[in-house]
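User: Can you recover a sequence for this backbone? Please restate the input before giving your answer.

Assistant: Of course. Working from this structure:
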């Protein structure tokens, strides 16, 4: 089970980077800057929706060390598994970038030269990451699990288009994008600033989320999508089943309103003037 979770996290993160870097290369070839950014944001948001739907029931679809760290802080993920998640997320992200570079005729690894640093961009990453975590925990703890993929995808699309840093909001994504000298790249010198802001946001927002969406932590087993195995469906009674007098579950309960025999007995008792 652990191996399946790790493979799902690594593969999902790799595919996410294919969407991020690939859409950046394609959209940067034509059109005004605002149109390019909008197209990129839309593709990334839709990719997240698809990937969370695909892998959520296996690993929880974190694809993001910040989400994994928050899950650990909330007490929902063992430390060893959390460490494994972070490793495969980083490896998967880097593999996704290398594959995308090759698909578009770029060098497998080319350190990015796009400068992304400064207080404003760091603050933007802190805000974008905190907002992402608020959306995830808020929707999960509302019990509307089916809404998680759409909510996360929509938030990221909005954040990419409306924040000054274009919302990396993911340490694995940040590190991997330094390996592609394309439209979505980030110069390696800016990586520590972005990653530091993302991790700081996770630690700062943790107590807020515990208070704001207060509930028993055990009721939210996994982020992004709870992936506890479904309960077995109840066995339907058959008219050919034989009554076992020694089986307590097979005996008719005279007080069970859903038992036809009990209902019939209650009707006769009422007609006779009540129990004697």
């Amino acid at each position: 089970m652990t191996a399946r979770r790790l493979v799902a996290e690594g593969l999902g993160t790799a595919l996410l980077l294919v969407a991020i870097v690939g859409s950046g290369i394609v959209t940067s070839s034509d059109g005004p800057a605002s149109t390019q950014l909008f197209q990129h944001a839309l593709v990334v948001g839709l990719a997240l929706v698809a990937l969370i739907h695909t892998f959520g029931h296996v690993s929880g679809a974190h694809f993001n060390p910040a989400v994994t760290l928050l899950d650990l802080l909330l007490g929902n993920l063992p430390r060893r598994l959390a460490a494994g998640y972070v490793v495969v997320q980083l490896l998967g992200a880097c593999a996704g970038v290398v594959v995308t570079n090759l698909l578009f005729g770029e060098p497998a690894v080319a350190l990015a030269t796009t400068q992304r640093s400064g207080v404003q961009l760091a603050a933007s990453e802190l805000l974008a990451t905190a907002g992402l975590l608020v959306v995830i925990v808020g929707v999960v703890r509302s019990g509307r699990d089916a809404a998680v993929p759409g909510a996360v995808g929509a938030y990221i699309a909005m954040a990419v288009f409306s924040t000054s840093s274009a919302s990396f909001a993911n340490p694995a994504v940040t590190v991997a994008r330094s390996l592609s000298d394309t439209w979505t790249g980030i110069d390696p010198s800016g990586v520590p600033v972005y990653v530091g802001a993302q991790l700081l946001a996770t630690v700062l927002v943790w107590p807020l989320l515990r208070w704001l969406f207060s509930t028993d932590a055990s009721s939210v087993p996994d982020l992004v999508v709870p992936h506890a195995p479904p309960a077995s469906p109840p066995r339907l009674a058959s008219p050919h089943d034989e009554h076992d007098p020694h089986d307590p579950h097979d005996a008719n309960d005279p007080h069970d309103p859903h038992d036809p025999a009990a209902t019939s007995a209650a009707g006769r008792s009422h007609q006779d003037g009540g129990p004697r």
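That completes the design. The CA atoms of residues 255 and 262 lie 6 Å apart.
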